[in-house]
Amino acid sequence: MASGIQGIAELRNAFQGVGEDMRLRTSRVMVAAAGGVLRKEARALAQAQGLRLTGALIQNIVIKRDKSPDGVTQYNLGVRHGRALGKKAEKKLVIGKNGRVTSVYVNDPFYWWFLEKGRNVYQGNGRRKRGAVVRRVEATPFIAPALDNRQQEAIDAMARRLETAIRKANSK
């Protein structure tokens, strides 16, 4: 961890004060609170960088909870896109370059990864094997800087949620 982060040891010690039956719920609420701080910052950074063409990118910056087969739960800050748009996905039929009718998602920010990490633009038909790299599109990250900018605020949000859970446990 970075040396500038304050309160992680105190947070860990205070978490031991939460009852065993409340630990799972409390930990989820704590991480969700921290994720909310980071999501808000990522949306603000994306908008400040002028990435609001349709608004789809900013609206789809989300926190997602994934559970692995071995029971470990992790939270991911990213951009919902493609099939993952779920019920928010709106499809329309278009005619492709080859004349075939295909369906595409409307307001699908599939390009978010190109903005976050940058990408190479190739000459020719875009296939790596046939075309040479013409230029590099530089990254304009908004997810990674959100963590750098609001790391301490995220930990503080977790601490506030933990204090609320401890108060609730002690009042019972």
UniProtKB/TrEMBL annotation:
NCBIfam families, A to Z: phge_HK97_gp10
Name this polypeptide is given: HK97 gp10 family phage protein
